[in-house]
Amino acid sequence: MTAGSLHELGAVEALRAFRSGELSPVELFDASVARIAAVDAADSEGEGAINAVVQVLEGARGAAEEAERRYAAGVDEPLGRGGTALLGLPVATKEKHGLAGEPLSQGLVALRDERAEADHPVIERIRAAGGIVHARTSSPEFSCATVTHSRLWGVTRNPWNRALSPGGSSGGAGAALAAGYAPLATASDIAGSTRIPAAFNGVVGYKAPYGRVPGLPPLSADWYRGDGPMARTVADTALLAGVMSGMHPADHGTVPGEGSLPIEYPDAAGWLAGKRIALSVRLGDYPVHSDVQAAIRRTAAVLAGAGAIVEEVELPWASGRIRDITMAHFGKILGPAMAELTAGMTELSDYTERFISDAHAAGERMSLVESLAGEARMQAELAAAMDGFDVLLAPVNAVDGLVADASYLDGITVPSPDQAGGEVRLDHYWQAHMTVPFNVNNRCPVLSVPVGIAGNGLPIGMQIVGHPYAESSVFHAGAALESLQPWPLLAPLG
């Protein structure tokens, strides 16, 4: 391998190269930092900089030097396990995952001088496993949008098409992976904030079951939320998920899991034989773009051709009703928390003000008991649809992309899936994403994997949904698809 191609390496691949002596952690660290310097602010075509990284921690090079010494002395632990699970790997972390003593603004101008008092639990675990946080990535203010721009950090753009957004809220993480800034990244997901950018950037994102990955109280008690991993391959995503997961004394909601996730998938496609897979292209009435529908159906056919039994299922879900239930939920927890934090702030982005207002109004219209009843119905409906199946397949996004600097305050117009040349107007742009139903069903693991490219040049993502806490099923299904239908590992930036 050459210095110019080191940014293309995956995490498991790099770990093997470290152990064989073919590669030094210092070489990979330097290549990752150099890639950010060369690409992130570049705008040679006048299309706008990617702008995914808000802080480079070049002082972390000392950790890479220490990892180099540890490999030279010999590493005996199994690959990807224990205190050397991530030894020497650069990891890009979402800025909301605080590092002790470093800025913790969450994209808010008024908090730009705030410093984290301690490492976030996922940072703590990454460092304990030998991972090296070398870059921190952008998000919208308070991670409350599915685009990534803020008054503090400006606009983050998709490396596949810079006119379009990388998605949000973990948009910087998705763009960083697609641009080759790191083999691993951290993300978070309360309504799709991991899966949406994973899909739009052509990488893998994982929404773990609620409680598997520790968060910070008090908002860690919100049963929609969860922190998680992103990477460019299924194995790399499983690697970071394994490091991040498990019970933690800071988060009373954490739970034990079913065991270690595999990071190697020999005969991955063989897992499919006889597996029963449910397919729901529209999850009820979501108006899904024709390019997205075609990619999902093509992928389902590939899985069927490899021996899986694929059947379409119906879900009685309406995107407007889902919006009402979930916004009422946010009106009881996240909305008030944001309102309290931002009280008196004058430099908020328009989408932040709108989210606080919309959540408050929705919370006033629907009581907590009513929203819980709505959630329970959705959970029962998903359980019924998945009965007898191993996993469920569905699109991540109903749309093929979002404009990079737009806020969509007045909703979004999308092509009609039922009428050629027709359009559908959605009251809230969150209805353009098919992720939040699985935050309502938040004990279900969901893996987002790439399945194609839309006409606008952006990747298309598919959700693989498992039964509650059945984590290995979604990774095995993802690995099988990856072996049958490999995807590009980087955006075509050169």
Structure overview:
- It comes from Leucobacter ruminantium.
- The chain contains 14 helices and 15 strands.
- The strands form three sheets. The protein has an eleven-stranded mixed β-sheet with strand order 1-3-2-6-8-7-14-15-11-9-10, with helices on both faces. Strands 4-5 form a two-stranded antiparallel ribbon.
- Helix 4 links the parallel strand 2 and strand 3 (132-137).
- It has helices at residues 11-20, 25-39, 61-73, 121-128, 171-179, 195-201, 234-244, 290-305, 319-332, 334-342, 350-365, 368-386, 437-440, 471-484, and strands spanning 53-56, 90-94, 132-137, 149-150, 154-155, 184-188, 204-207, 227-231, 276-279, 309-312, 391-395, 412-415, 423-426, 446-453, 459-466.
- It has one domain: Amidase signature (AS) enzymes.
- With 494 residues, it is α/β, with parallel strands linked by helices.
- Helix 10 packs across helix 11 (350-365).
CATH class group:
Alpha Beta
| Beta strand % | 5-15%
Mean of pLDDT: 96
> Reading side by side through the largest sheet, how are the strands ordered?
1-3-2-6-8-7-14-15-11-9-10
Please estimate the helix content: 25-40%
Q: H/E element string?
A: HHEHEHEEEHEHEEHEHEHHHHEEEHEEH
| Largest pleated sheet | 11 strands, mixed
Query: N- to C-terminal separation?
Result: 16 Å
Contiguous low-pLDDT stretches (5 residues minimum) are: none
CATH H-level superfamily: Amidase signature (AS) domain
Question: What is the C-alpha radius of gyration, as a whole number of Å?
Answer: 21 Å
